[in-house]
Amino acid sequence: MPQSTPLDAETDDTGQQQAERPPPHEAAGADDYPVREYIGAMALELAQMARWDGDETLGCALDVAARLAAEPAQRPAAVQVDTGPRKRTTRS
Fold it and tell me: Which of 3, 14, 22, 66 could lock onto 43 through a cystine, CB 3.0 to 4.6 A?
């Protein structure tokens, strides 16, 4: 009989269970994995490419994305999700 595995576990190609790994930015620490810097640099490159292709609107939108990526991250507060029963409504 096969062993049960936790829902959050992953299995590799051989079917061996592996522990779930945190995302790279959490495992290495935010300072060691500069995601926002990478996104900002990539957005600037894409903005330049859009302008070379004649799309100034897209270039401007990507410039805004690059500026947002340069700002400190603003983590949203935890959101409480109401999972209680819903009242069924009927249309008249």
Answer: 66
